[in-house]
Design a protein that fits this description.
Strand content: under 5%
Radius of gyration: 51 Å
Largest sheet: none
Helix content: 55-70%
Number of strands: 1
Shape: elongated
Length: 1593
């Protein structure tokens, strides 16, 4: 047989031999053929050991490797012992002693691998002695011989001859006789004594026989107990105990089973104190230590099961194995070894010896004894008996018969409970020992719960004495303990018993929710860890929950719901905890989970509420996402789930509402999200900023209209759920506290909570807080009865002064109260007098208003400083804050819309063939009823509105006192009324705009409508910047409504004359307070009003551009929101629209990567703006501009004689130019001179100039951009290898100058257009341009003065997407209409740049650019005088001002003509060159189209120094590199005169300096520095040109 261990292995043992050997052993042990493998392993181990014996291998090396291989087979130690046995024989025969030593050393080293017993079996005694396993081999041999002899040869001997058998026979006969007669124990005892004496019987054996017979005749307790008691007087006291001990010992074999009769005898003897428990206890097995060990082992096993259940199992085989293991474990637990202590305990309980039973239980671990079913059942039976009388008295439900339980015959059993006090003393203790094992007896469980219910009824009924109350309190706390320690754990171990759950809820619902939640908390977080069984149950529940949740979908909601229901009856806390954890991760589970919870019991719903609150309050969860700007999705999911589940199921809300209130008290507003969701789902009150105007209109109607047309989703069936919410709020007094906490927390969000947080998040939290307040207040207003509301909401001064509620919120809460109050008073008065005349009704209404509002007028005085009331009356203040849109106007169109919808619905029902007739009838009835309700509601609202307007008519004269100035009055009105309220809610925004209009229409004294509108539209920067996102949206709505009114007046002279003509609001002269003369000259005429409106549009543009250019997140976001909201009415003027469009486009480019939310907003607005472009009109159509510009200002002055105190905002020269220093003027002159030549325009080229000097100024930036483009265009033209041919200066010349050329040049122009068409792929635009030019020529013919309509430069054109031909046609149609019939109001407006560019000189553009850059805010209250002075000054200082004296005009015209001619010649030359270039490079057109705008914007950015490195640098053309720029400049030198070059450089420098007011990034600064170095070469020439330009002027 070949050796298995090669010699090399042994030589290189440490290097590789060892591992080779281990691999060999592994391979052999895995051999399928068992016998071969066995032999080979034997050989391998033998060879290894033999190498050790021979000394080739050290014994410790061998023992190490054997330690490694020993676990390969179960029988490995046995094989090793065999090998040692063989070697033992072999080495004992050898003469070499060292080999024998090696062998013993090896065996000694391997002792830890093979057990002593196996070695003792296999090895020689001598070897064992040498190994030290036995002391002496000789003794060992003798001992083994003795044992063998004893086992196989010895006989058992019995000596029974001394005692006589007849005595025993008689004794048994004596004890076994019929005891029913008058035989007493004393009599029998005498006979027994005689028998002992006569037959020489052993008294101990007699006692044993007496016990034996007693065991067999257990029913004769009354006979045997006295007998044994009497007999014991003759014995030693310990004898009885010892005999019983011997009896127990007899059954202590592993297979022995102690009979129950013996346990019973022992128990009775214990109960009668014939033996001591301590004496007997020591004779019983198992020992206490063994019991404790077993208990610990159970806990460990339970934990292992949990670990196995929670492990991730991949294959299905493993699950099968797991099931087998479970079955094995169950079999094990079914056959416990005989535990005599428990047997005795059971017997004690059965006979009712609670005292001794308790003592035994105390010796064992808690609940160890009752975890054995027989003991638990025995204890339950004892409890049944004990509570019987009390249960029969108070616990049995009405109509139930029940089966009475007879009491124990044993007089020593515990006393039965007759009262709750006795119940506490006797029974509660027993229940505590039972613990979770009450689950074995559901009937007892129900009885205990019913007793608890009866006790709670008694506890809650008052009228008991103080002592009784204290007792009851003690009892109540004991009941709570029992619930915690016994009832809930037992429910966990019951097998899905829904009835028990409902029974328990009967008691639980009498506890306050604080106690219930405390119990659920203990149950969930502590109880399950207290007992091995519960540990297992928890793991199994989670396992099952996972199984169900993995398979839960919308399709299988019912079956899954049933499984969830089944699981929840016993272990709701664990199940819901898992379900909620899943919902927090996957919000798409919400709907199926909510639907699947329909099979829960009431208790489970309550537990669910607790689990939700616990999940919300989890301190380990972050309420913000990692970016710190948004609320975490888990919180949003939970909130959404809350709303859905509380709406659908009857769950108590008190705990959740209180939790939100507590969080608010702690200054945390995140959890308002929950309240918001709950109110939205339960009451159907939505809060959304994305309401359409139709919805908003519907929200101003009655309740029915709101429900039908005001919300996104049709919210039905909220009656019950909103009632539940209302009840919860009222029962726990949370309605007002929540309102007040939210109102206070709004500012808390900003000043306390928001300190460390991101501004965006603070805004979100503020909005959430505010929206929830509005929503919650709306819910209370519509659901609380008048009495409830008035009882709970304090008066306005208390709200503001004591509770520190902000005024807007305080009035918001009080408003419904006033409305309720007035309507109830009105109804009272109507009932009192039955006069039906309309006048009577109105009179009564006004009376009721006065009665209700008089105290309010008094109360509001304390809200503000006394000087406030000099301008506005408290009555006006209260009226403004107490009315709503419902009071001001009837939304007839909304009512009509909803009624029509219903009609369509009814028609659809009629046409539906599939619908069964009875359903048809029902649906039609529903629709008809709704229709009638809506019509009735409309009628009711109409009457109400008329009454309100009558009331306002009477009040209006006392509204505005204007003791200081009208300006101050408007300030107060805006500050205290309009601004706080217009951002409160969307409806309030609409209300504010309507209210302003209403005050105007009522011809309210001292109210200047013009001033009011002017203040609203002028400089909105500050208001916009200080809004949150939602406030900006509401502010936008307000501005939209205000603009709507203004646009209506602006649209038509007739409307204006009718609605504003003779109204005091449109007086331009503000005389003494008492006098409002109706002098026509004092009124603002229609044309001037149009100028004013243009000024307002310009102001809005200026503010918008400023906000967009700040780079501040809040500014940009808010202005974009506001602009989106006012899109229907602004921008209307083409050039303003273009200005905005460019700024927004810039934002889109800059923010694409940086701030995606801003990018999305900007893109959205940009798209909408483009769609509105066809409806925009040129400025000269928006307001008429008189040809002689100079006459405009005097006209204004004439309008208001003396310029009495008229604020700038009303003057017609709407925006005054800021005064520039002389230095600035010089710079501007230089700049303009350089640029004029490029643009071909001189200072006053056209006599037709805007009346508003500044209206073009706003878009200086636009002009700047165009200038830059033109410059860049020039430079490119001069390059020989021009990369970007599409946007050439002749295009710009065509765009800008085409329209001021005389008729004879038309043909030339059209030729150019054709050429460009050939060259440029984007033909649509060119067509459009030609059309525009034709239109312009028509207009020129019709007018005496050349009116220049600006056409866009191609660079701009290319930046926009190509408009479709339809849009072109629309534009053409529009402009034709305007040309023919004056101005028609566009349906909706959009933005374009202010002032047609060709109307103003280039130098003026520079001036305006400076103006916008410095963003000085116009003063609100400067007078006409100031204005005129400024105009004079500016006209003196700025040669560019349009109001320059007439003398200079002719000179300017001459200069202009010269310049025009020069520039035309130049442009023609360029065109010829460019045509050649273009033909060479036709294939590059499409690319170059895209590159041009980017080049120009890049250059602009470098010059302005306002932006960081441009985002679109990837697509820049190479011409952007500085080296190329230098080349361009060299070419410029050679091509153009030095003067021209110097001026262009100067212009660039000026542009840099003009942007100084803005922040520069480091990158930009570097760029500008480089540029300046490059430019410095032309510096000297510059100075010369500076002088020459002055001379030229």
């Amino acid at each position: 047989m070949a050796a298995l261990l090669p010699a090399e292995w042994i030589k290189n043992w440490e290097k590789g031999g060892k591992s080779e050997f281990v691999q060999l052993c592994r391979a052999l042990s895995e051999n399928k053929n068992h016998d071969v493998g066995f032999r080979d392993i034997q050989q391998a181990l033998y060879e290894l050991a033999y190498h050790v014996v021979r000394g080739n291998l050290k014994h410790d090396q061998a023992s190490n490797v054997l330690g490694d291989v020993i676990e390969f087979r179960e029988d490995m130690p046995s094989i090793l012992a065999d090998v040692f046995c063989i070697l033992d024989i072999e080495t004992s025969c050898l003469e070499e002693k060292n080999k024998r030593d090696h062998f013993t050393q090896l065996v000694l080293a391997c002792l830890y691998l093979v057990s002593d017993t196996v070695l003792k079996e296999r090895l020689d005694p001598e070897t064992l002695e040498s190994l030290g396993l036995i002391k002496q081999s000789q003794q060992f041999n003798q001992k083994s011989v003795k044992i063998k002899t004893k086992l196989f040869y010895k006989q058992q001997k019995f000596n029974l001859l001394r005692e006589e058998n007849e005595g025993y026979a008689k004794l048994i006969a004596e004890l076994g006789q019929d005891l029913s007669g008058n035989i007493t124990s004393d009599l029998i005892l005498e006979n027994i004594k005689s028998l002992i004496g006569c037959f020489n019987l052993d008294p101990n054996r007699v006692l044993d026989i007496i016990l034996e017979v007693y065991e067999c005749r257990p029913e004769y307790d009354d006979f045997f107990v006295p007998l044994i008691e009497s007999y014991m007087y003759m014995c030693e006291p310990q004898t009885l105990c010892h005999i019983l001990g011997f009896k127990f010992k007899f059954y202590q074999d592993p297979s022995g089973e102690t009979p129950s009769s013996l346990y019973r005898v022992a128990a009775v003897l214990l109960q009668h104190n014939l033996i001591d428990l301590e004496d007997l206890y020591v004779h019983l097995l198992p020992g206490d230590n063994a019991i404790i060990e077993e208990h610990k082992r159970e806990i460990v096993e339970a934990k292992q099961i949990v670990r196995k259940l929670t492990m991730v199992v991949l294959s299905s085989e493993k699950t099968e194995e797991k099931e087998k293991e479970k079955e094995k474990e169950e079999e094990k637990t079914e056959k416990p070894p005989d535990n005599q202590k428990l047997g005795l305990l059971e017997a004690l309980l059965k006979i009712g010896d609670w005292h001794h039973a308790q003592s035994i239980m105390d010796q064992m671990p808690p609940f160890y004894s009752t975890s054995h079913k027989p003991i638990a059942i025995a204890l339950c039976q004892l409890v049944h008996v004990t509570i019987e009388p009390l249960y029969r008295r108070v616990g049995v439900p009405k109509g139930a018969k029940g089966s009475p339980i007879s009491s124990l015959p044993n007089k020593r059993a515990p006393k039965q409970a007759e009262s709750f006090e006795e119940l506490r003393k006797e029974v509660f203790n027993m229940l505590c020992y039972l613990g979770p094992h009450l689950s074995h007896d559901p009937i007892l469980f129900a009885k205990v719960v019913r007793l608890g219910k009866a006790f709670m009824k008694e506890f809650q009924s008052d009228g008991s004495k103080q002592e009784d109350k204290e007792k009851m309190e003690t009892l109540f706390s004991c009941l709570l303990s029992i619930t915690d320690q016994v009832l809930l754990p037992s429910l966990s171990l019951m097998d899905c018993n829904a009835c028990m759950s409902e029974e328990l809820w009967g008691m639980f619902k009498t506890f306050p929710y604080q106690y219930r939640y405390r119990l659920y908390g203990q149950w969930k977080n502590e109880t399950y860890n207290s007992h091995p069984l519960l540990v297992k149950v928890k793991a199994q529940t989670i396992d099952r929950a996972k199984y169900i949740m993995k398979r839960l979908t919308k399709e299988n909601v019912k079956p899954s719901g049933r499984q969830i229901g089944k699981l929840s009856h016993s272990n709701p806390t664990i199940l819901f905890d898992y379900i909620l954890s899943q919902i927090q991760k996957y919000d798409n589970l919400i709907t199926p989970v909510v639907d699947s919870l329909k099979y829960l019991t009431s208790l489970n719903y309550d537990v669910l509420a607790y689990c939700i609150i616990e999940a919300l309050a989890n301190p380990e969860k972050e309420r913000m996402k990692h970016d710190d700007t948004t609320i975490s999705s888990w919180l949003q999911s939970l909130a959404s789930f809350c709303g859905a589940v509380f709406r659908k199921y009857p769950i108590e809300l008190a705990g959740l509402l209180q939790y939100v209130a507590n969080q608010l008290k702690a200054g945390k507003s995140f959890d308002l999200l929950i309240l918001k969701e709950v109110v939205q789902k339960m009451a159907g009150i939505e809060i959304t900023e994305e309401m359409t105007m139709e919805q908003l209109e519907a929200m101003t109607g009655g309740e029915q209209l709101k429900a039908e047309g005001g919300y996104f989703g049709q919210i039905r069936n909220t009656k019950k759920s909103s009632q539940r919410l209302k009840d919860a709020l009222l029962d726990h007094d949370l309605a007002l506290p929540l309102c007040l906490l939210m109102a206070q927390q709004r500012n808390g969000v900003v000043f306390q909570e928001g300190g460390e947080k991101h501004l965006k998040l603070v805004g979100k939290l503020y909005d959430q807080c505010h929206d929830t307040l509005v929503q919650f207040g709306g819910f209370l207003a519509s659901n609380l009865s008048t009495e409830d509301y008035i009882k709970r909401v304090p008066s306005i001064d208390v709200l503001c002064n004591e509770f520190h509620t902000p005024h807007d919120a305080a009035f918001f809460l009080s408003r419904p109260m006033y409305a309720h109050h007035i309507s109830s008073k009105y109804d009272e008065l109507k009932k009192a007098e039955k006069g039906n005349k309309q006048q009577h009704k109105v009179h009564k209404y006004i009376t009721s208003c006065e009665l209700v509002m008089a105290p309010v007028h008094e109360a509001v005085i304390s809200l503000h400083l006394p000087k406030v009331w000099d301008d506005i009356s408290p009555q006006f203040y209260a009226t403004f804050w107490s009315l709503t849109m419902y009071d001001l106007a009837v939304p007839h169109s909304s009512y009509d819309r909803e009624v029509n919808k219903l009609k369509v619905q009814m028609k659809a029902i009629d046409d539906n063939q599939e619908m069964p007739p009875n359903k048809k009838k029902k649906e039609k009835e529903r629709c008809t009823a709704l229709q009638d309700k809506l019509l009735e509601e409309e009628k009711k609202q109409l009457e109400h509105v008329q009454r309100v307007l009558q009331r306002l008519k009477l009040e209006k004269d006392n509204w505005l006192l204007a003791k200081s100035t009208k300006n101050e009055t408007i300030t107060k009105f805006l500050q205290l009324c309009i601004f706080p309220r217009c951002i409160f809610s969307a409806i309030d925004a609409v209300y504010c705009a309507h209210f302003v209009e209403l005050v105007h229409q009522q011809k309210t004294p001292n109210f200047s409508t013009l001033l009011c509108y002017d203040r609203v539209f002028s400089d909105i920067i500050y208001t916009v910047a200080s809004c949150t996102e939602n406030e900006a949206s509401r502010y936008g709505r307000f501005l939209c409504c205000m603009l709507e009114t203004v646009t209506r007046w602006h649209s038509d002279r007739v409307i204006y004359e009718k609605e504003c003509g003779n109204y005091p609001g449109f007086l331009t002269i503000l005389r003494a307070t008492g006098f409002d003369g109706g002098n026509k000259a004092d009124q603002l005429d229609y044309e001037n009003f149009r100028h004013v409106v243009h000024k307002w549009h310009y102001k809005l543009t200026k503010a918008s551009v400023h906000c967009l250019e700040t780079g501040e997140y809040t500014h940009i976001r808010n202005i974009l929101i506001v602009l989106t909201k006012i899109l229907p009415w602004y921008p209307k003027v083409l050039n303003l629209g273009q200005a905005l469009e460019r700024r927004v486009h810039k934002i889109c480019q800059e923010e694409k990567e940086k701030r995606p939310d801003l990018y999305a907003l900007a893109m959205g607005y940009s798209g909408q703006l483009k769609s509105r472009k066809p409806f925009m009109i040129p400025e000269n159509e928006f307001h008429h501009k008189d040809p002689p510009a100079r006459n405009a200002v005097p006209a204004t002055v004439q309008n208001g004689p003396g310029g009495a105190g008229m604020p700038t905002s009303v003057t017609i020269n709407t925006v005054r130019l800021e005064e520039g220093t002389t230095e600035e003027t010089d710079k501007l002159k230089e700049k303009s001179q350089g640029v004029v030549k490029v643009i071909n325009k001189t200072v006053n080229a056209t006599p037709k100039v805007t009346t508003s000097n500044g209206n073009s100024a706003s878009n200086s930036k636009i002009i700047k951009e165009k200038d830059d483009k033109e410059k860049s265009g020039k430079e490119k033209d001069k390059e020989k290898k021009d990369k970007t041919p599409a946007a050439t200066p002749e295009m710009k010349a065509l765009g800008k100058d085409g329209k001021d050329k005389p008729k004879e040049e038309r043909a030339n122009k059209e030729e150019k257009a054709r050429e460009i068409k050939e060259k440029t792929p984007k033909s649509d635009k060119e067509k459009e341009k030609v059309k525009k030019e034709e239109k312009a020529s028509k207009e020129e013919k019709s007018k005496t003065v050349v009116t220049i309509i600006e056409s866009k430069s191609t660079a701009e054109k290319e930046r926009e997407k190509e408009p479709s031909r339809e849009r072109d046609l629309a534009k053409e149609m529009k402009s034709k209409e305007n040309a023919k019939g004056g101005e028609k109001v566009p349906v909706a407006g959009s933005l374009k740049s202010p002032v047609p560019r060709s109307e103003t000189s280039e130098s003026e553009r520079e001036q305006k650019r400076r103006k916008v850059d410095t963003h000085s805010s116009p003063s609100h209250s400067s007078t006409v005088k100031d204005n005129l002075n400024e105009l004079k000054e500016s006209s003196a200082k700025h040669y560019i001002n349009h109001t320059t004296p007439t003398l200079s005009k002719s000179k300017e015209r001459e200069v202009e003509k010269k310049d025009l001619d020069k520039s035309r010649e130049r442009s023609r030359e360029r065109e010829k060159k460019d045509e050649k270039d273009r033909k060479d490079r036709k294939r590059d057109h499409s690319n170059s189209d895209r590159e041009v705008p980017q080049d120009s914007t890049k250059r602009r950015k470098e010059e302005n120094g306002t932006t960081g490195s441009s985002k679109h640098s990837k697509s820049e053309s190479p011409s952007d590199s500085p080296r190329l720029n230098e080349k361009e400049k060299e070419k410029n030198k050679s091509k153009s005169s030095g003067k021209e070059k110097g001026d262009s450089i100067k212009a660039e420098k000026m542009e840099k300096s003009s942007s100084g007011s803005k922040k520069e990034s480091r990158h930009d600064k570097e760029k500008t520095e480089k540029k300046e170095k490059r430019d410095s070469t032309g510096g000297k020439e510059e100075k010369k040109h500076h002088k020459s330009s002055d001379k030229h002027r």
